[in-house]
C-alpha cells in the first residue's frame, strides 16, 4: 500500500501548473458518446484514475477511446451497447453521466445504481425526474437503474429542487437530441457546466444560458464529434493556493482562473493571504499570521464544498475561532477525526464545525477518507511537527495528478512510498517512539 509522508516546516516557493479539471473532463468524455458521426478530440485531459475509469466504461460500450499525451480521442460512431459495467460505476459515481447521452441517442440506458459514499448519500433522483419529464420511463431495481424512451425524448420544462451539478449535466446531454425545447430551471452554474455546454455546442447542439440558473436546449437530430480543450481545475488550483498560504510561501499557480474562484480568493484574502492576478495565473503569498474566518459551502458561485477540508487545514493555522458550515453534503466532515489525531482542536455541531487556532499540529498516521480529505491532511502535514503519513491514497489518485511531485518541486519535504519501503524515522520521532 502506498503512503505519502510529509514533514512540515518548509515554505513553498516557485511555480506550479494546474491540470485540466476532473469535474469538466468526465462529463465531456461521456458527452462524446452522443456523436453518431466523427471523432471527438479532447485536450488538456489530466492523467487521473477517474479518467482511466471513464475510458474503460466507454471502451466496454464499444466506443473507440485512446488516451495519449493528455489528449483523449473518442470515436463513438459504431453501434454502442447501452449498459455500463457495474464494476466501474462502483469505482466512480460520475459513471452515471452515461445515462443522458445513451438515452438521447438510443432511447435506452442501464447502469448500476451508484452507492452512497464517504461524503453523503448522493442520490440521483433529480437526474431521473428530468428524464421522466422528457418522456422516459425509469425502472430502479436489483441494484440497477434503467431508462427507456419510445422514440425521441420530448423537450420539457424542468425545475431542479436543488442545483445539482450531475443532474444539470445529464439532463442537458439528454435534451441535446430531444424533440423541441427543454428549459432547465434552478440548474447548477459551475464553470464545468459551461465547459460541457461549450463542447455540446461545438458538436452541433443548441444550448444557451449555461452558467446562469436557466438553461435552454433546443434539440437537434444528431451530434458530430468535435475538438475541445478542458478548463483548468479550480479545485487543484485552490489546493496549491492553500499550500502556499499555509506555509507562508510565495507561489504562482499557473492556469488558475480568477473568474472561477472568486469565493475562495475572497475568503483567503479575509484570512490575510495576498493574491494577485498575473498574465498566466494567480500569485499567492502567505502572511506571517493568518486570521480566523467563517465560511459556508454553497453551489457555485458560493464557496465550493470541494475546497472545504483544505480550508479547514488553513484555519487550524489561523489565529482565533473559525466556523465552517457544510450545506452541500450531509457527511463531509470525516477529515475532522483525522485532524484531531494531529492535535487539532475542532468541535462538530450539526452541519458546522468550530475550529480553534492556531494549534501546533503534530505529525501522525492519518487516513484520506475521501479525495479532498486526503489533500487537506497533506496540507496540514506541511505545517505539522515531525512526519505525517497519509494512507488510503486511492481517493487522492482519483483527483490529483502527481500531487507529491508537484509539492516537492515547490520545496515541500514530501515523498510517496510503498509501505514496505518505510524505514526513515527522524530524531523527534525516535524520541516520541521511545517515550511511548
Ligand atoms: C464529478 C463531479 O462533477 N463531482 C462534483 C459534483 O458532484 P455531483 O454532481 O454528484 O453533486 P451534486 O451537485 O449533484 O450534489 C449536490 C447536492 O444535491 C443532492 N442531490 C444531487 C442529485 C440528485 O439527484 N439528488 C440530490 O438530492 C446531493 O445529495 C448533494 O447534497 O458536484 C459536487 C457539488 O459541487 C462536487 O462536490 C463534486 O466534486
Ligand atoms: C467529491 C468529489 O468528486 P466526485 O463527485 O467525483 O466524488 C470531489 O472532486 O471532491
Automatic annotation (TrEMBL):
Binding site for UDP-N-acetyl-alpha-D-glucosamine: 93, 122-126, 306, 328
E.C. number(s) listed in UniProt: 2.5.1.7
GO molecular function: UDP-N-acetylglucosamine 1-carboxyvinyltransferase activity
Annotated family: Belongs to the EPSP synthase family. MurA subfamily.
Domain Enolpyruvate transferase: 6-407
The keyword Cell cycle appears for this protein: yes
Recorded name of the encoding gene: murA
One Pfam family hit: EPSP_synthase
UniProt cross-references to InterPro entries, sorted A to Z: Enolpyruvate_Tfrase_dom, Enolpyruvate_Tfrase_sf, MurA_subfamily, RNA3'P_cycl/enolpyr_Trfase_a/b, UDP_GlcNAc_COvinyl_MurA
Record-annotated active site: 117 (proton donor)
General function of this protein: Cell wall formation. Adds enolpyruvyl to UDP-N-acetylglucosamine.
Subcellular location field: Cytoplasm
Catalytic activity: phosphoenolpyruvate + UDP-N-acetyl-alpha-D-glucosamine = UDP-N-acetyl-3-O-(1-carboxyvinyl)-alpha-D-glucosamine + phosphate
Residues involved in phosphoenolpyruvate binding: 22-23
Chain segments annotated as transmembrane: none
Superkingdom: Bacteria
Lineage: Bacteria, Bacillati, Bacillota, Bacilli, Bacillales
2-(S-cysteinyl)pyruvic acid O-phosphothioketal PTM positions: 117
Keywords noted in UniProt: Cell cycle, Cell division, Cell shape, Cell wall biogenesis/degradation, Cytoplasm, Peptidoglycan synthesis, Pyruvate, Transferase
Protein species of origin: Aquibacillus rhizosphaerae
Main location: cytoplasm
Name the record gives this protein: UDP-N-acetylglucosamine 1-carboxyvinyltransferase
Pathway as given in its UniProt record: Cell wall biogenesis; peptidoglycan biosynthesis
Amino acid at each position: 500500500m502506498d503512503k505519502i509522508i510529509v514533514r512540515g516546516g518548509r515554505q513553498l516557493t516557485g511555480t506550479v501548473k494546474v491540470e485540466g479539471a476532473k469535474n469538466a473532463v468526465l462529463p465531456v468524455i461521456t458527452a462524446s458518446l452522443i456523436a453518431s458521426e466523427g471523432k471527438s478530440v479532447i485536450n488538456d485531459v489530466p492523467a487521473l484514475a477517474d479518467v482511466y475509469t471513464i475510458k474503460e466504461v466507454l471502451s466496454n460500450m464499444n466506443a473507440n477511446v485512446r488516451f495519449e499525451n493528455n489528449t483523449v480521442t473518442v470515436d463513438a460512431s459504431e453501434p454502442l451497447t447501452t449498459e455500463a459495467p457495474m464494476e466501474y460505476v462502483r469505482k466512480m459515481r460520475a459513471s452515471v453521466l452515461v445515462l443522458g447521452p445513451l438515452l438521447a441517442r438510443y432511447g435506452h440506458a442501464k447502469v448500476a445504481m451508484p452507492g452512497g459514499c464517504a461524503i453523503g448519500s448522493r442520490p440521483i433522483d433529480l437526474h431521473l425526474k428530468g428524464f421522466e419529464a422528457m418522456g422516459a420511463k425509469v425502472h430502479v431495481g436489483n441494484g440497477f437503474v434503467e431508462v427507456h424512451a419510445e422514440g425521441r425524448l420530448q423537450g420539457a420544462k424542468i425545475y431542479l429542487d436543488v442545483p445539482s451539478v450531475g443532474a444539470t449535466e445529464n439532463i442537458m446531454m439528454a435534451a441535446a437530441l430531444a424533440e423541441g425545447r427543454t428549459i432547465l430551471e434552478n440548474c447548477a452554474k459551475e464553470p464545468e457546466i459551461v465547459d460541457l455546454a461549450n463542447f455540446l455546442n461545438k458538436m452541433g447542439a443548441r444550448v444557451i444560458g449555461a452558467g446562469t440558473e436557466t438553461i435552454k436546449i433546443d434539440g437537434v437530430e444528431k451530434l458530430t464529434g468535435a475538438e475541445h480543450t478542458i478548463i483548468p481545475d479550480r479545485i487543484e488550483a485552490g489546493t496549491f493556493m492553500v499550500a502556499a498560504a499555509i506555509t507562508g510561501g510565495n507561489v504562482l499557480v499557473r492556469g488558475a482562473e480568477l473568474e472561477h474562484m472568486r469565493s475562495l480568493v475572497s475568503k483567503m484574502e479575509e484570512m490575510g493571504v495576498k493574491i494577485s492576478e498575473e498574465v498566466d495565473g494567480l500569485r499567492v503569498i502567505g502572511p506571517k499570521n493568518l486570521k480566523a474566518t467563517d465560511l459556508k459551502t454553497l453551489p457555485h458561485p458560493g464557496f465550493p464544498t470541494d475546497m472545504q477540508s483544505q480550508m479547514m487545514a488553513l484555519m487550524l493555522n489561523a489565529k482565533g475561532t473559525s466556523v465552517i458550515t457544510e450545506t452541500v453534503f450531509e457527511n463531509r466532515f470525516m477529515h475532522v477525526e483525522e485532524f484531531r489525531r494531529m492535535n487539532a482542536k475542532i468541535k462538530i455541531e450539526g452541519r458546522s464545525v468550530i475550529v480553534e487556532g492556531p494549534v501546533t499540529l503534530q505529525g501522525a498516521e492519518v487516513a484520506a477518507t475521501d479525495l479532498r480529505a486526503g489533500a487537506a491532511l497533506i496540507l496540514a502535514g506541511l505545517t505539522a511537527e515531525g512526519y505525517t503519513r497519509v494512507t488510503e491514497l486511492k481517493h487522492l489518485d482519483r483527483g490529483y495528478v502527481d500531487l507529491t511531485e508537484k509539492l516537492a518541486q515547490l520545496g515541500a519535504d514530501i515523498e510517496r512510498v510503498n509501505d514496505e519501503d518505510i524505514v526513515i524515522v527522524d530524531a523527534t520521532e525516535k524520541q516520541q517512539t521511545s517515550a511511548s
